[in-house]
Amino acid sequence: MSTNEIQNPTSAAAPDGREYDVVVVGGGAAGLSAALVLGRARRRVAVVDAGQPRNAPAAHMHGFLGSDGLPPAELLARGRTEVASYGVELVAGAVTAVAPSEGAPTSTSARRRFQVTLNDRSVLETRAVLVTTGLRDEVPDVPGVRERWGRDLLHCPYCHGYEVADQPIGILAGDPATTAESLAHAHIVRQWSDDVVFFANGATLTAAQREELVARAIGIVDEPVVSLAVEDDHLTGVVIAGGRNVPRTAVFVRPRFVPNDSLLVDLGCTVRDTGWVQVDGTGATSIPGVWAAGNATNPRAQVITAAGEGSAAAIAINNNLVDEDLPIAVSDVRPGLPA
To answer: Which of the chain's ends, N or C, has fewer CB atoms near its CB within 10 Å?
Structure first.
C-alpha cells in the first residue's frame, strides 16, 4: 500500500500489502473515477493498468464538463494523482486472469475472495473486482486509416465534429454489415458541415438510402476506397479505385466495437444477445462480487459517461461490502449466530 495508507476497521487485513477490498482492472476514466470514490470511502484499493488507453491518439478530449479540450493523458495523470492521495495503490501491469480464491465462501452473506493474476505472475487478493478494460476499434483495412486514427480520421462526431465544422468531410463505410450505421453517421455529421461526401466503399445502396443522402445534400461515391491521401502530415483526400482523389480534410468512420471482456467471459459472466456482458444499472455482473463499467460493457460510453458509470459502480461495491460485513459483525458479538 501507499505510505498514505488509511486505517479501515472493515477492510481485510493486508500484512503483505497485496490484499484489498477492491481491485480495479483498468486505469481509464471509469476505473480511476471508481477508485476515487472507493478511496474516499476508506477502502483498500488497487488499480491495475497496462497503460494503453483507447483515446491515446486523440490530442484533446471534448464533452467532459470542466475538462473540455483537455488532453486525455492529462486527465488520466490528474486522476492518478487524486486517487493516490487517498491511499489507492497504482499497479502497472496487465491482468491475465481473475478467479474465485480457492476455498472462498460462496454465501452472499460471507466475505468473498478473488485472486487477480498479473502478467508478472504476481497475485492480488481482493473481496471485489471492477473491470474497466474498455474496448478496441476495428476499422476498415484501408491504407492510412490506422495511421490517421484519432487525428483527422475520426469516429465520434460529438467528440470531434465541432473541431472540423465547415470543412470538407468524408464518411467512410466499413464492411457491408455496418453500412446502415455508416449512413446514420453521415446524416449526423451533416449537422457540422455543408460539404459531406459518403464513400460507400463498394457497398450497394438502396434507392431509398440514395434518396435520403441526396435530400440532405450529401455526396455519394460508390467506388471502393484505395487509400487516404496525406501531405505534410495532414489528410488531404480520399483516393478511390481508378486513382481519383476526392479532396477531404477530415473523414469519419464507424468502427466495429469489440469489448475487452475476456476476463469477464472467462469468469462466466452472462453475455447478452448483443455479444456484450450483461450488467445492471450499478455495473453488477451476474457473478456476485464482480462489476464492470465503461466501454467494456457499454460501447457508446464517452469519457464523461464512463466516469459516471465508474462512480456508480464504486458506490454499489462499497454498499455491498458493508452488507457482507454486517452478519459477520453480528456473529462476533452474538456467538453461535450463523454468519
So the answer is: C
Beta strands in the chain, from DSSP E residues, in sequence order: 19-25, 45-49, 89-92, 95-100, 114-118, 123-131, 135-138, 153-154, 169-172, 196-199, 219-221, 225-231, 234-240, 245-247, 250-253, 256-259, 290-292
Residue 244's CB: how many other CB atoms inside 10 A? 12
In this predicted model, what pLDDT tens digit does every residue of 136-165 receive, in sequence order? 988 888 999 989 998 999 999 999 999 999
Residue pLDDT, tens place only, 249-288:
999 998 889 999 999 999 999 999 999 999 999 999 999 9
Domains and CATH numbers, the chain: 19-136+257-333 (3.50.50.60), 140-254 (3.50.50.60)
Task: Kindly state the cell numbers that stand for 147.
Answer: 495511421
Q: Are 135 and 255 in contact (CB under 8 A)?
A: no
Q: Residue 253: which residues within 8 A CB-CB, separation 6 or more?
A: 139, 140, 145, 153, 154, 155, 171, 172, 174, 182, 185
Polymer length in residues for the chain: 339
CB 62 within 8 A of CB 88: no
Asked if residue 87 lies in contact with residue 8, where contact means CB atoms within 8 angstroms, the answer is no
Query: Residue 280: helix, strand or coil by DSSP?
Result: coil
Q: How far lies 271's CA from each of 30, 243, 258, 286, 300, in Å? A: 20, 45, 13, 9, 17
pTM of the model: 0.86
Element holding 180 (H helix, E strand):
helix 179-189
Grid cell 459477520 is found at 328
